[in-house]
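Changelog-linked ticket: flavin-adenine dinucleotide example.
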Amino acid sequence: MSLPQFKLLRPRALDEALSLLSAHSKNLRILAGGTDLIPSMQQTLFEPEYVLDIRHIAELKGIRQQQGSGVEIGALTTLTTIEQSALLRRRYPVLTEAALTVASPILRNMGTIGGNICLDTRCLWYNQSLTWRKGCGFCIKKDGDLCHVAPGGTKCWAAFSGDTPPALLCLNAEIEIVGPSGTRRIPLRDFYTGIGDNYRKLQPSELLTRVFLPEATADYRGVYRKLRIRGSIDYPLAGIAVVLKRWNGHIADARIGITAVNPAPMLIKGVRETLEGKAMNEALAEAVGDLAARTAKPLTTSALTPEYRREMIRVFTKRAVLAAASN
Ligand SMILES: Cc1cc2nc3c(=O)[nH]c(=O)nc-3n(C[C@H](O)[C@H](O)[C@H](O)COP(=O)(O)OP(=O)(O)OC[C@H]3O[C@@H](n4cnc5c(N)ncnc54)[C@H](O)[C@@H]3O)c2cc1C
Ligand code: SF4
């Protein structure tokens, strides 16, 4: 499949990128690693007049420890750099585990953490060629007015399918967004809308620049588990991140995040209340598995059935919580 025509813009500094964004934001797409954007452009899901290639902005790359206040990760840091960081592996292992499962090694060499956070939502009826989508009469997310997943509805339910965001949510990560009206730093949990065709709170003239991992969630045990068709490369069809802190053999704090089963990655409510002050056992692991399965609302957006994906959220949650408590 060939790419549609576009004009390539290649800023070398953040200021330059921001002024190009302001000038062309109405018809522009940001390219970081391009591992999701380029295939989507080949499928004509996006046909921007301009592509802003931000890969050469050095200040947005790298992992920096902030004395006493956690770790800062530039949005252009590749998933391979994250996966190979001894600092992250030691202090935020859940992020290392999640990054390690994204796509394949070659795609992780290109793909960035910023691109993973900003990743477009996915659906069996949407991530297809133009011919395929035309044959189905298109859909609400692109060029049409009906939803094949929830016929009769007016909302898009495409699933957010990035692997690192549930891990980042568990770590209470924050993100920095820069735009014409300045810089804002927000909790990642406030970034997603839960609407499949308008899934993130990012203006066309804004750029995600940094990710912050707080000191308070460093050294938590962490586990990530993922359901996919081909273990070597596929997007998640259900994903689950667990972080947990123990004290005196009992759980002092815990969080669970899920992905690929809702239009946004989500934290599961009630996990800490269920586990706090207790020693882990099968019954407790099953109880939080039930909580996660109740929060997951998979629909027919992927090749596996919603029932199977929800059940796997329950099973993986139980296994992940037991593994996190024992390692
Ligand atoms: C075969 C295949 C398998 C894959 N499997 C997985 C998988 O298992 N798990 C997974 O999570 N992903 C998967 N991906 C998707 C992709 O490789 C990763 O999500 C990757 O992290 C995306 O990062 P990128 O830098 O390449 O993003 P890009 O493709 O460059 O961008 C993705 C989106 O984010 C926007 N964007 C990127 N950076 C910024 C920024 N700094 N500010 C604002 N907007 C930005 C872009 O405009 C675009 O909309 C797969 C892709 C392929 C082709
Ligand atoms: S959930 Fe419905 S509207 Fe959204 S991409 Fe799928 S078919 Fe289209």
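Closing comment: Example verified and attached. The pocket of iron/sulfur cluster (ligand 2) is lined by residues 123, 125-126, 139-141, 147-149, 156-158, 196, 301 (CB under 6 Å). The mean pLDDT is 97.
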